[in-house]
Amino acid sequence: MSSKPEVGVGIVGYGLMGRAHAHGYTVAPHVRDLPCLPRLRVISGRNSEAVARAAARYGVEEWTADWREVVTRPDVQIVDVCTPPGTHAEIVEAAAAEGKAVLCEKPLAAEYAAAATAARVVADAGVPNAIGFNYRRLPALALMKRLIDEGHVGDILLWRSVWLSDEFLDPDIPFDWRFERAMGASTIADLGAHLIDLALWMVGEIVDVAAQSETFTPERSGRSVDVDEASSVLVRFADGARGTFEMARTCARRPCDFFVEVNGTGGTLRFDYPRLNELWYGDARDDDVFYGLRRIRAESPRHPYARDWWPIGQGLGYGVTFVNQAADHLERWPDGPWDPDLAQGARVQSICEAMERAAAEARWVGVREIDYAR
Amino acid sequence: MSSKPEVGVGIVGYGLMGRAHAHGYTVAPHVRDLPCLPRLRVISGRNSEAVARAAARYGVEEWTADWREVVTRPDVQIVDVCTPPGTHAEIVEAAAAEGKAVLCEKPLAAEYAAAATAARVVADAGVPNAIGFNYRRLPALALMKRLIDEGHVGDILLWRSVWLSDEFLDPDIPFDWRFERAMGASTIADLGAHLIDLALWMVGEIVDVAAQSETFTPERSGRSVDVDEASSVLVRFADGARGTFEMARTCARRPCDFFVEVNGTGGTLRFDYPRLNELWYGDARDDDVFYGLRRIRAESPRHPYARDWWPIGQGLGYGVTFVNQAADHLERWPDGPWDPDLAQGARVQSICEAMERAAAEARWVGVREIDYAR
Amino acid sequence: MSSKPEVGVGIVGYGLMGRAHAHGYTVAPHVRDLPCLPRLRVISGRNSEAVARAAARYGVEEWTADWREVVTRPDVQIVDVCTPPGTHAEIVEAAAAEGKAVLCEKPLAAEYAAAATAARVVADAGVPNAIGFNYRRLPALALMKRLIDEGHVGDILLWRSVWLSDEFLDPDIPFDWRFERAMGASTIADLGAHLIDLALWMVGEIVDVAAQSETFTPERSGRSVDVDEASSVLVRFADGARGTFEMARTCARRPCDFFVEVNGTGGTLRFDYPRLNELWYGDARDDDVFYGLRRIRAESPRHPYARDWWPIGQGLGYGVTFVNQAADHLERWPDGPWDPDLAQGARVQSICEAMERAAAEARWVGVREIDYAR
Amino acid sequence: MSSKPEVGVGIVGYGLMGRAHAHGYTVAPHVRDLPCLPRLRVISGRNSEAVARAAARYGVEEWTADWREVVTRPDVQIVDVCTPPGTHAEIVEAAAAEGKAVLCEKPLAAEYAAAATAARVVADAGVPNAIGFNYRRLPALALMKRLIDEGHVGDILLWRSVWLSDEFLDPDIPFDWRFERAMGASTIADLGAHLIDLALWMVGEIVDVAAQSETFTPERSGRSVDVDEASSVLVRFADGARGTFEMARTCARRPCDFFVEVNGTGGTLRFDYPRLNELWYGDARDDDVFYGLRRIRAESPRHPYARDWWPIGQGLGYGVTFVNQAADHLERWPDGPWDPDLAQGARVQSICEAMERAAAEARWVGVREIDYAR
Hints:
Oligomer: homotetramer
Number of helices of chain A: 11
CATH superfamily of the largest domain in chain A: Dihydrodipicolinate Reductase, domain 2
Shape of chain A: globular
Largest interface: A-B, 46 and 46 residues
Helix content of chain A: 25-40%
Strand order of the largest sheet of chain A: 16-15-14-13-7-12-11-8-17
Distance between the termini of chain A: 50 Å
CATH architecture of the largest domain in chain A: 2-Layer Sandwich
Number of domains of chain A: 2
Largest sheet of chain A: 9 strands, mixed
């Protein structure tokens, strides 16, 4: 079929993210002309039976119950980390030590310090590395970034971002690791990390934050819940723009509803994930007769990623973000760089931690309190 | 035509609000069977030529350049205050001293202290009194309140409210009183007061706030601008619910876009003003097969106010809020009480002031710091 | 208050349309600077008690049980006909014979022949005359017409129009005149007449039609229903454009949902009545990067009618169509002409009749079969 | 990885549909636990260079310039036909003669007679066979069908379907096979076939049609265009329901916008493809306080297909229809039956042909005129 060089991929973790990343590698070569072909060599997980089933389903050649095996196999060049956040840093560092390229799911770690260390270790190792902010790979969001960069909204004044779900609304949902802060769980990090990444990418550095957090169901299965279920945040950007964030998992009939909006001196851009193939744009300099926002159908061949897919109007879904992510990485194989990298993962983590501290201490927190290097 | 008793109305101020309130009195008797008929006796304004023109246009019998004349005329029973906020308190107090019923536009005053005094004065005078939170009179928002009260969302956990406009985006807009804090101007009070009123009405008392404000164009026409152009706020409600507010007048192609949403233990309700005849509702207990939000067409005869108007589906607009407001007041003539009253106006003012202080001092502010009585 | 000349108005019929028209005259002088002031002199209806109540509610000075009195009163200059369609022609003709200006609700008559005669009689009488196609007076639809006329969609290729309601869905709704063809009732004429008027206005003459009609509940209260409950139609316009119409009153949870769309060589325009303050526009020549439709907020001061009303973004409703209609007529008092006139009413009727015949005979019908003069 | 039996697939045609079907087979085993594993053995196309490139890209093991080779290879069990419609019947029949299972893209043929013959040939051969109505495999449309079958809209009264695109709007698009009727091209068949399939599936048999067609650009590249660019149709269903269809490729800024709606005695269901993860439902028996349509997020685990994919709210796209189609077929391997089968393809073709005849002859056409067997 093809004489392209193969790149061995090992996936650590076989849950939803493991499945999504495997999907990405499976489909990527079919949508873009890549310089190499990924082979899913191995997947790991502690439950042997489950990981064996996952390997068969995801199309991975072998499985193991020991993630260290993934990291050390000579036929694996890319280690893809899809485990709970509290375990990321150790795996990432081990992979980098073996000279493997690393893609790590977000958030990068349970604490900023661990995230920063992991980012520094991979940078020192000189391996391609990336953090899994997959939503950047949606055509509509990538187009939003491009329109901002091209000046279509002028200087950004305001940022607004909200992520609502109902996953924690029911108080009878039993305790699991998502309710345990030590595992790296928190609503700020789980939902918010994506929004923070988008804000840093589209607007720029965040310098100060104020926040509040609430846990409406403080106990589950007789155990204490120490993660926030809902948090909201005010931020000041380095260039003077102001922003808001809200992430909440107690919103009935809101399955996974996030939106982001920027208002600049020259226009407005808005994206609503429930209508993920659309981007709304208003140009302040347009003739007033056409006053309002345009609904851009973000699937034109001139839009990012869209030419790899279907004719305009057919619609893309969540899955394409993982395919585009894999394609972007493989396209730059073997030298990279990959973007966003683990340093961005650490940067996002510093904002998460500033938000948590601001909520806990009920005061404005400078991001430099967390990240002295800034 | 009718043998109903007449009630004389005098309007102080002939700008947009004067026009809107006059519209309300003109149409109210045609949509509801009232115990009395309003007569627009007099309107006042400092510019004689303009107020004379306004009197003719709005259908007011006489005009005057002196607001004190409105307040003292024996044929005026209701004084309707539509001047800039900094002038409200004095007029309100003078009207109450004359035993007149008072409707005052929002915000009630430039400072909480003045608002509280005005509210106390009218209460002591025992006259019917009201603050102009007209959006409560939209069928969709009144329905939202009713559904909350009837338990359709359970206990409220989260409140979210945003008001976006572009009125201040252009830096070449010349200086006028809207940019002058001493006149009672501020984005928090002008746009935010409505949202705060809705939050207090639908959720309950607010106890703590954190806020940020920004003025992107600090000088206009060579004069310094001392009001916020954009503010965002975190709040804690007395019963533990958490909320967010944003009000901004620098959002391109956003003419007057406000929305409010509550998420409760049993459901979600959401209202978007650009689609003002709709209310979105999701019931957490519904069969999952129908998972999502319903778009309630808030014009059914069973909805508040709607039976006074047109058949379902025809659509209502901004004007009806003033008609409904006038009808609600006249319906309770002469004894009242009117709702929301000036005490609610003062309550809202205390929150505005807490938000301003929280932004100015970059810290969480307890509403009790403003309003000791609470 | 004003020294403008007064114009006496008499309304025949006190149902929903009588109320809506009275509302129009009441508010019109407050939104536009008119050359005259309307006075609601008299309203008529066969049920004395009900019409007396209506007079008081609508603000009409006197009432009568005999419509001929309205027509002959010397203090009435405008006769406004709001009775069931089967009675229109006789009243219109009597009013014209008395030299009165006439506004007649749609449809103009139960049959084309009667409509054509009525139109000719008023034309011969030389009185200002109008047919009540009120939706033309919505800012968004008036803007749609203007954008077409200015060439923003190029040459029109396709027209598409649908009107859905659920008023006849329940088979237990008892028989009344709306189910009786002899009274001028039909879904084609009641809902369709508005769509036909918009099509003729925006696109041009219709020359051929094919249609189907259905009555799903053929009997109510033991009486036979001889009107269509749902009809759909194909049309060919004189200039080669093609179009579709559907009007149906058996659509659950569709209260009054109409939309119209044109597709031209240069663009698309679409209007949805449930979001009546918006007009959607796509320009085929726009940069592909912005591919899609714009949501124009049709309330800008530069849009038709909008400057008479509220600031952009506040929203207008059904009621304004009647106010704008009254203002348009009074603005051209006493000479007229008014637009659309009864001749347009007759033209629309000829299309309705062609549609009915096409459905009854299951064949394409040329409009010239109905209207030989064309 | 797996010990499941393999099923060899050969694809005839390497255009967009060839790519989409290959995608389906590639991903299907990863979303559902299938009894067998597909192997993409071979793909054919007349342009050797292009088909070789396609084979590499789509992940097909071998390629050939001769479709007969695909049909006769012993290691191919499923022949998947993705060529222009005019060539389908011959390939389908050849494949069936070799005992291969057949999936054929729609429309099945250029004429009904050929379609009927092909359907009969495969039926006689007793091989699993299917027609590519992929949109049935969208969760939202599959849910719509299920809700109808479960009685959620009662008896269907009205069907409404529209498909708009702008692919033929520009008169400078050069001539190709899509403008040539002899190749099986027509807007009725290309866009309409999907809508017709959905109507037959959801509502039932169509017995009579009236139609109009237009070709606004009758000549391209100096050649005459003999296909319709825009057609609209009225239909009567066997059970008395009425319906409309419109398909048009001259609609500016409408990329691929189709919607379908049914109105029944008990409710309304509506689907808009541009928001393909939503289904709108209104229950006529609901409490009037909730009057309106619900926006069902058609991605719940309880919805068809959705459990194979991502968590609710993440969004699916066009690609999943082909994956679900492949999975549905492979799940029933080797015995079938597959659904919809080629007989349904022929049934749809009979309606297309009736529509074409009705337009050409400007009269109502009974479907039995085309398909005597009915």
